[in-house]
């Protein structure tokens, strides 16, 4: 009897152990996987691509270059999350910044906490760097335009079905005149049947 009880416990432990194991498979970052229906990496990528296309293919760049005979300088401001979910805007902001830099028609300056880190380093250099390598105050490139936006969501549900609608709006504003020079948006709608 003791032997069969031990055998039963051993077999049960194997079954429980194997059913609790997790399998992880690496997939391509381009593969679309939507598990929950909530905002995900595919939505972030689609949003960035659409807004990049809109932003870089409008007249504001040519208009600025014609008037001032130089490339416009852009700083990326806040993307406010007005949705009901936690959405990390850094993923699509970085894609937008990278596209602006790679396009070459617009200059980009650092924003937010990274800009503050640069200023702190410059302050430290005033005390600790040699005169030959010291970076001077007051030499930052001033931005001509600020890119800002917000993301909103609407969720409609009934029993086991729901529809998730997301809209990301962005606008580009002339910092000197407060004139809006470009507005763009990307809308995503998902049907989820649980």
CATH class: Alpha Beta
- Residue ranges: pLDDT <50 for 5 or more in a row? none
Shape: flat
Mean pLDDT metric: 88
Helix content: 25-40%
Count of separate structural domains:
1
Instruction: Provide the structure class.
Output: alpha/beta
What is the CA-CA span between the terminal residues? Answer: 47 Å
The CATH topology corresponds to: Rossmann fold
User: Total helix count?
Assistant: 5
Which range does the strand content fall in?
25-35%
Task: Using the 3D structure, state the CATH architecture.
Answer: 3-Layer(aba) Sandwich
Oligomeric state of the chains present here: single chain
Rg computed from alpha carbons, rounded to a whole number of angstroms: 25 Å
Query: How many DSSP-defined strands?
Result: 5
Strand order of the largest sheet: 2-1-3-4-5
Sheet bearing the most strands, described?
5 strands, mixed
Order of helices and strands: HHHEHEHEEE
């Amino acid at each position: 009897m003791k032997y069969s009880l031990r055998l039963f416990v051993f077999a049960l432990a194997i079954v429980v152990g194997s059913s609790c194991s997790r399998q992880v498979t690496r997939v391509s970052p381009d593969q679309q996987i939507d598990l929950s229906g909530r905002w995900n990496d595919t939505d972030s990528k689609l949003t960035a691509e659409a807004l990049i296309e809109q932003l870089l293919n409008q007249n504001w760049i040519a208009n600025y270059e014609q008037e001032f005979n130089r490339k416009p300088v852009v700083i990326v401001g806040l993307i406010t999350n007005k949705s009901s979910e936690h959405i990390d805007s850094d993923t699509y902001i970085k894609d937008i910044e990278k596209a602006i830099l790679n396009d070459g028609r617009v200059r980009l300056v650092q924003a937010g906490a990274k800009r503050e880190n640069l200023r702190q380093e410059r302050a430290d250099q005033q005390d600790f760097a040699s005169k030959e390598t010291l970076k001077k105050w007051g030499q930052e490139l001033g931005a001509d335009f600020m890119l800002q936006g917000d993301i909103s969501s609407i969720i409609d549900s009934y029993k086991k079905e729901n529809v998730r609608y997301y809209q990301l709006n962005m606008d580009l504003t002339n910092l000197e005149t407060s004139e809006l020079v470009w507005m763009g948006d990307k809308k995503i709608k998902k049907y989820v049947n649980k």
